[in-house]
Amino acid sequence: MRHTISGIIMLAALLLTGCGGTNSSSGKANDTAASRDIFAMDTFMSLKAYGSNADEALDKAGERISVLEEELSVTNENSDIWRIDHAGGNPVQVSEDTAAILKKALEISDDTDGALNVCLYPVVSAWGFTTGEYRIPDDEEIPSLLKNTDWHSLHLDGSTVTLPEKYQIDAGALAKGYTSDEVMEIMRESGVDSAIVSLGGNVQALGTKPDGSLWKVAVRDPFSPDTDMCVVEVGEKAVITSGNYERYFTGDDGNNYWHIIDGNDGYPADNGAVSVTVIGSSGIECDALSTALFVMGYPAACDYWRSRQDFDMVIVTDDQRIYYTEGIADVFSNISSMPAEVIPVA
Ligand code: AMP
Ligand code: MG
Questions:
Q1: Cys-Cys with 286: which of 87, 240, 241, 255 at CB 3.0–4.6 Å?
Q2: Three-state SS for 28?
Q3: Taking the model in full, what pTM does it have?
């Protein structure tokens, strides 16, 4: 059911780009749209491309997504991630994709002091977020699991990965951003210069719409996830969101527990942010940062942004306020009843 609802929302979000219609044609060669709806990586994906090479490019993109799913799945016994997690401390040879993702993960983990930490998988798993068999781990279980989550223990040497015994990783925080980067690369190589994809609501665009205008990307309201909260107009950018509504369960205690874990205590991150959207040119970077900034919360995520200022973001706080960076001020439309304000630079 969750998948069905999120799929409808995601398709609605894509339609907001103003390019609805499957395989529709307006008669002009560079205006011909082709699209694909795919279910992969536990996510509804919607891909749309324009121009005469669009169909061929989308077929190639679909094949690439299947390969990436095989490599990156945490549950498929043939995947790189599964082999790393079950190597008993021995070195494992992985694909270039997996190596690139882990390299970026380690870089952002260092830069965010472990707010992003792919080694938290034993904790993610204990909460049941992998299987859907949700549970609240007890107070003794979490500290013992946290002992084996120091990301400095994950070693990457070219395409050789070594992870200590009892450690486990998952690439869920970056895999979709990497995938949308790769899809865009296939589009470019295939001669497509106008395309947009949504991987479970994480959007990445190539070029502009065929008429030269910007893409309109809707971001969901975390307090009412079946409605949109704002629209951001972008060119060739990724718009990637981490939210507490994306995967969660309600415990017997009546509290909601979501899938993004704070490595400081092993509990779902609850530091003042309920949704963080990162806008930038690299999908993997935006995906890694959206998870990390969600963990940091508000206002720490604003301090991190101030220290870099090479991406834009929209952050929603648990007291129902929207904050966004000045770089998107001219292309940001608040369509919610929440107040929205620009994050001061200093
Ligand atoms: P995202 O939706 O991109 O924010 O990624 C969330 C997914 O990343 C979760 O479903 C987990 O598989 C994994 N995850 C949860 N917490 C963290 C964390 N602090 N660092 C890295 N990965 C995480
Ligand atoms: Mg992420």
A1: 240
A2: coil
A3: 0.93
Q: Which ligand is nearest to the CA of 109?
A: 1
CA of residue 182 to ligand 1 center, whole Å = 20
CA 70 from centroid of its chain's CA atoms: 18
> How would residue 30 be classed by pLDDT, with cut points 50, 70 and 90?
low
Q: Where are the domains of the chain?
A: 1-346
Tell me: the pLDDT tens digits for 37-83? 999 999 999 999 999 999 999 999 999 999 999 999 999 999 999 99
Residue the block writes with tokens 């040497």? 157
How many angstroms separate the alpha carbon of residue 174 from the centre of ligand 1? 8
Residues within 6 Å of ligand 1 by CB: 116-118, 120, 124, 129, 170, 172-173, 242, 246, 259-261, 263, 287, 290-291, 295
Query: Residue-wise over 138-176: b if at least 16 C-beta within 10 A, else e?
Result: eeeebeebbebbebeebebeebebbbeeebbbbbbbbbb
Superfamily of domain 1-346: ApbE-like domains (3.10.520.10)
pLDDT band for position 215 (50/70/90)? Answer: very high
pLDDT at res. 1:
37
CA distance 316 to 242: 11
Tokens of 339: 């107040």
